[in-house]
Amino acid sequence: MLTPKLQDAFNAQINAEFWSAYLYLSMATHFDNEGLNGIANWFKIQFKEEQAHAEIFMNYVNSRGGRVLLAPIAGVDTTWKSVLDAFEATLSHEQKVTALINNLYAEAEAAKDYASRSRLDWFINEQVEEEETARSLVDRLKLIGDDKLALYMLDQELAARVYNVPSPLANNA
Ligand code: MG
User: What is the mean pLDDT of the chain?
Assistant: First the structure.
């Protein structure tokens, strides 16, 4: 069984993952409106990945005999002044999520809950990738600057991103 404190912490993380999903869905719809369909596609896939993260945590809490409690999802921004602005917000958001996962890991350690620690290892590695991807897009957008053709080419490139379930842990099977 999860300790009540850890169960609360996992439920808070489930909410944070759904909030992330909501944020990226908001970015997707914003860039769809702006005619940047490839950028919108990238954020739409990000939205799906965040939902999968929430599902992994939900499956895990259930598998430990815990209780998943879905709380209201707070509002998100609905507009960004540039693509760079949105990716900078993405990077800083992912850095915050990394800190949340690290805190959760510390809680699992304090409770000597080795199963939780082990499950969180997947998320620790996932956050390295999330931050690296966002950072690299921020760097590229800084290089692009005001070059509309380069932005168009990046939009084409990101249109090719396809969704893959990030882990079989997201399935209910
Ligand atoms: Mg996530």
Answer: 96
Dist. CA 97 → ligand 1 center (Å): 7
> pLDDT class for 1, splitting at 50, 70, 90?
confident
What sections of the chain are H helices per DSSP? Answer: 4-33, 37-63, 83-110, 114-144, 148-158
Domain chopping of the chain, boundaries = 4-69+80-166
Ligand 1 centre and the CA of 65: distance in Å? 23
Rounded to whole angstroms, the maximal C-alpha distance in the chain is: 55
**Distance from residue 71's CA to the centre of ligand 1 (Å):** 17
Residue 53 alpha carbon to ligand 1 centre in Å: 5
Please tell me the total number of residues recorded for the chain in this structure.
173
pTM of the model: 0.94
* pLDDT tens-place string over residues 32-43: 999 999 999 999
What is the CA 151 to chain-centroid distance, rounded?
24
- Give Cα separations from 32 to 1, 29, 70, 82, 155 (angstroms): 44, 5, 29, 13, 11
The arrangement of secondary structure in 4-69+80-166, i.e. its CATH architecture, is Up-down Bundle (1.20)
